[in-house]
Amino acid sequence: MGRNAAAVLASIVGLVMVLTAFARPLEFLGTAVVDWFNVLAAIAFVLGGANLLKMNLLKISARDAGWGYSAVTVSVFLITIGVGLLKVGAHPDPLHPDVALSGDKEAVGGAFWWLYEYAMSPITSTLFALLAFYVASAAFRAFRAKNTAAILLLGTAFVVLLGRVYVGVLLTSWIPADNAWVSWLRLENLSGIIMGVFNNAGTRAMMIGIAIGIAATSLKILVGLDRSYLGSSD
Amino acid sequence: MSQLNAPLHDPAVERRANRMMVVILAIACGLLALRALIGSSIGSGADAVTEHGFGMVYVQESPKGFVSEVAKDRAADGTEVEVRTWKPAAPGQTPEISWTEWNEVTAGEWAAAQRARADAPASAPLVTVSWPRTAGVWFAALMTLAVLSFLWRDNPVYKLAESVVVGVSAGYWMIVATWDTLVPKLAGALVPAWTKAHLMPSLESAGVDWWGLVPLGLGMLLLCRLSARVSWLGIFPLAFVVGTFAGLRFVQNIESDLLAQVATMFEPLVVVKHQALAGADAAATPPIDWAGSIGASLSAVLILVGVLSVLAYFFFSLEHTGAVGGAARVGIWYLMITFGASFGFTVMGRIALLAARLEFLFDDWLWLIDPSGKH
Amino acid sequence: MSDRPNESFLARLDRIDRRWIFLMMAIAVAGPIIWVGVTGRTFPETATPAVQGAFDAIERLPEGSKVLISFDFDPASAGELQPMATGFIHHCQLRKHRIYAMTLWAPGSPLIGATLADVIGSDPSYRYGENFVDLGYQAGNEGVMKQVGVDFPKAFPNDSKGTPLARIPMMQGITRLSDFDILISVSAGYPGGKEWVQYGVSPTLTQGHRLPFVAGSTGVQTPQMIPYYPVQMSGILGAIKGAAEYESLVNAKATAPGETVPAKYQEAQRRMAPQLFGHSLMVGLILVGNVIFFAGRRKGAAE
């Protein structure tokens, strides 16, 4: 019963979204649904935070392996929530200095800003930067010109890697740039041709395929044929 | 370092790796001490001083004071109300509310301010080291190194950094969603007077918007997922989100990625380009640019062939033999070139991110370089 | 040192510990950073058509045009994307366009304030609320995109400071996305440039009044965006190279020959030196890896 009602709800709001794309007078309906959707998305962040807290507290109370790290996560999470909600160190809005919480939560110098600037930013960006090392190691170990397909992949990577930096310009600078019959052979131009022609064609075909796939799966949800997102009925 | 190929669970290797880590840490500490000993020259001319510290942030005080005025105004229902407005206190005026803001300045400005304060202590604004921000730079640098230490091997310092970022990120997203979306759109709709009085004094509201109960109700049901007993109630907000998303994506994917992309395939395959003429010749019919025309035509043909052959490869309803098999093979070649290009661009992106992190260490922390003149 | 003394050089190279490769990468990137930091030298850049297209799309708009720029990235991708965001704001400032900044990524919110303060903070001709506004973040991803296409004030009821849009002079007349003269997305992934094309630009295309769109995107995302150029997208800055090309175009417009370009407008150009050595190292590693592979295969066949 509950699953049927939920599937009907999904169909109704989905069809409203489809209808409003074609009937402008009904735009207000779509706007209302999307507005609720956006608020719900914000509540999902609260759910995410609460879930993180729950999982880590369970780990701490069970003294599971690595519970000390969970304690760090929970402490930092609670500190962030505390200073963020109370806007610690952020001054009120100059137009309303009598309302303590009227200021910018991310004001430079505030505690919330400090956590963003000096904890979240450096760690997340370094985590992303780590991949530069691993991609180098993987290229050394795994990039082998074993067959035609691998040669094409490798050759393209070479041209793009060299053509996008100044070394590519230097390597093929002997090819006259003003002669259109041969200038395309310069690495920087070859890189452009790969992106504009071959990559363009490959990505476009994937895009068309994916669009058809998404349209089909969306349609199944809209007509209630696909209910897998609701989980099993057990 | 060939010993490092040995399994890490070998106690001898473990001990050796730990000893190596200690040596690296000792060398790093020695280098930091050396860096402090050498110091940096900051400021210019007569203001120049040698500073042995590094990774420091300087700030200048900026006092703020406000006074209020009460004026009579008419409310929406016509009744007379008193409205209190605030404005910055004039020089000499005693502020009712005041605080001090600290704005970041360069090390050069700090050096100049030190000299100015020595000459005329009363008039010059206070410029000083910001210890919270300096500690922040050091913390950021140490966390950067902690994450990079994973390259050596997994270790507690890396795990600590990971735990910190998980906690901060989850808290950050939650707080931003609360202040930027939930407060104006939910609290502002359902309890506008209270929201205006305590959270958003600039809020403009025509009264309670009861439609706000819909997302609130769905949100409460979503939070039910935290409890095993009532988690099934969470399927309703989930269905709402999935349904809305399906409706949105159904239309937009067809419009933008199917129809618009297919439409680009109906462009001429034979392209004729003309040479650009300048000056007095500009009015004449320009001659054909043969190289440009052949290049553009070839590109158009190669794109069409590429799209069709990759689609043939994706089309599994027909066996990939004969002409279809040939087309599919060409499709694979196109895909390989596409993946090669993606690989090249991914490498480019990752190196840029690494460069940014190393720049932070060399510039903001160690003061080895100073491209933007901060210190 | 080796526990297999009779092993050939190539075989030993094949078993090299990956930490040596990490070290090589660190040196290849760190060395040029120090070199550029000390000498201040950068490489010359020539704009590719897609970058020129992005530049021209902003350049050809009349003075005072309404530019909506979405900062859809976080600090993790700022190494690639911050120079693009700075470049776009700098270009809009030079053209005296009105700048409306927003983000669909919560951690992108402080980046808006920092970029605006960095580029136009000291310009007296740019007044908050009249020439530029920071609309901050709204949750909802594509939901927000769809909503700004239909009812902008509903999606963003206030700016990042909590001021209602009705009290912001430059928001007068803005009811939906098509009221802007151009849309710029600087994006690191989802939601970002691709979704803006799908939910923001494409509906205006079928309505017969295409909203000009320009993207700045990470290296990972750029190849996926290329098919949208030039019909659904006027131009794109792809990865740090695209940012460097765009910087050089904007700097050429902003500064007279011989005049010093402020360092904050050369961030991407500075980063092209570590790119050069990093890319060269990658090519070298792949070559050496293949030499080892083919040598091993030949040896195996001979045995």
Describe this structure in words.
- The complex is a heterotrimer of chains A (234), B (375) and C (303).
- Chain A is built from 7 helices and no strands.
- Chain A is mostly helical and 234 residues long.
- In chain A, helix 1 (2-22) packs across helix 2 and helix 2 (27-61) crosses helix 3.
- Chain B is of the alpha+beta class.
- Chain B has a domain at 267-358.
- In chain B, strands 3, 4, 5 and 6 form a 4-stranded antiparallel β-sheet that branches. In chain B, strands 1-2 form a two-stranded antiparallel sheet.
- Chain B starts with 10 loop residues before the first helix and ends in a 10-residue tail after the last helix.
- Chain C has helices at 9-14, 18-39, 49-59, 78-94, 109-120, 142-150, 152-155, 193-206, 222-225, 239-254, 267-302; strands at residues 66-72, 98-103, 132-137, 182-187, 213-217, 235-238.
- Chain C has a 6-stranded parallel β-sheet with strand order 3-2-1-4-5-6, with helices on both faces.
- Chains A and B meet through helix 1, helix 2, helix 3, helix 4 and helix 5 of A and strand 3, strand 4, strand 5, helix 3 and helix 4 of B.
Judging by the overall fold, what is the CATH architecture of the largest domain in chain C? 3-Layer(aba) Sandwich
Tally of DSSP helical segments of chain C: 11
Structure summary, number of beta strands of chain C: 6
- Number of DSSP E strands of chain B: 6
Task: Give the SSE layout.
The complex is a heterotrimer of chains A (234), B (375) and C (303).
Chain A: H1 2-22, H2 27-61, H3 67-86, H4 111-142, H5 148-163, H6 166-171, H7 187-222
Helix pairs in contact in A: 1-2, 2-3, 5-7
Chain B: H1 11-38, E1 40-42, E2 49-51, E3 58-74, E4 80-88, E5 97-105, H2 107-119, E6 127-129, H3 131-148, H4 156-190, H5 192-198, H6 213-223, H7 235-263, H8 290-314, H9 322-365
Antiparallel strand pairs in B: 1-2, 3-4, 3-5, 3-6
Chain C: H1 9-14, H2 18-39, H3 49-59, E1 66-72, H4 78-94, E2 98-103, H5 109-120, E3 132-137, H6 142-150, H7 152-155, E4 182-187, H8 193-206, E5 213-217, H9 222-225, E6 235-238, H10 239-254, H11 267-302
